Amino acid sequence: MITKLLTPVRTTEALSEWTIQSYHWAKRIQVYTEPGNFPETTDCLLAIIGLPESRGSLQNSGSDTGADIIRKHVYQLAVNEYPLQLIDAGDIIPGETPEDTWQHIKMVMEWFLGQQILPILIGGSQDNTIGQYLGYEFLGQAVNLTVLDERIDLDDPEYLPPARTWLQHIFKHEPKYLFNYSAIAYQTHFNAQEVLRAIDDLFFDATRLGRLKENIQFAEPEVRDADLMSIDISCIRAADAPGIAHATPNGLSGWEICQIMRYAGMSDKITSLGIYEYNPMFDNQELTAKLIAQMIWYFVDGYYNRKSDYPIVSEKDFTKYIVNVAESDYDLTFWKSMKSGRWWVEVPFVVQERFERHQLVPCSYEDYENSLRNDVPEKWLRIFHKLS
CA 376 to CA 324: how far, in whole Å? Predict the structure, then answer.
């Protein structure tokens, strides 16, 4: 039973009557507060799960205590018009080593994904993304990982702890089922040029913070393409999220991260979310915990506004555009959803079954316009190289 890997929630004062009103989430969700009384999951669609594991962190010890503070503010969110089919499943039991904890996370992920419940992991250091990723192995299909972070965590594991090297573990893991990795909101001044070149050589994607500051909508196709999403709170500027040892003056604003979360929630593809590195020790007035709670609110709001327009089941729900690109052996086939107005471009190959989900590449109207000027979308080119 899954409860062998989970412990009940400890923040009982956060559920007290004087803090909770009738319109709060706490009145609509089931919380695992007593051993032997795990919430009913028959009609459950989403689950919050705490991660009390920060031994792999870099000078951010204390993030293992973050989940309970976040919960306190999640419970006080206002219910929207949709039925809130969400539970708080408690905390994953840490193992003797961080590696053991990753295996616990893997097993918990497998159980919830097998029940078609979307896990929302909170707290702990970002190397726990390894366990989140390993939870997809049983599906036997290639997956896409999208990460929001100021740094691309590909440092040398000989010199730095897992929180700064965890991508090495995922990129090298066998059997290999990572199809694409996308770095969002990275800051160039924190990342070695050889790391950025390595990402490019692997035909992975990277969107720098400055591009998002030009237009936050550039993030939408990237998060729409993800199966799992991992967020390091350091991607948010310190003024809006001080609750981390590595807070910096530049980063996404609170509004921008909530907009990205809504994009992510609306993706028909995303099946898990991890929000890592929050440390209450540095959190003035619990500002960061409040922001994380709001991030979860916008993600869930997006989830309940999904349009079910991926994958394409019926062409009558789409408008098809074919663009002949000069000096190219292939025409570009674009699909525009009549339900959501979102765009995809098709990669013209017959591929193995485990790669079929990746033949439609999320893009934007701007990509379509640029193709009319013989400018092929960069993301299409990367996927083309991977599948050809």
Answer: 10
Domain termination residue (choose one: 254, 273, 303): 303
Measured between alpha carbons, how far is 57 from 199 in angstroms, rounded to an integer? 23
Place of tokens 């053991």: 100
Domain count, the chain: 2
Gap between the Cα atoms of 169 and 337, Å rounded: 37
- Domain hosting 327: range is 315-387
Q: What is the mean pLDDT of the chain?
A: 93
Separation in Å, CA 127 to CA 78, 231, 374: 32, 11, 41
Q: Same structural domain for residues 68 and 46? A: yes
pLDDT digits (tens, 9 = 90+) for 143-158: 999 999 999 999 999 8
228 domain residue, yes or no: yes
How many other C-beta atoms are found inside a 10 Å radius of the C-beta of residue 174? 5
Q: Are 249 and 237 in contact (CB under 8 A)?
A: yes
Q: Is 336 found in the same domain as 187?
A: no
Record the pTM.
0.96
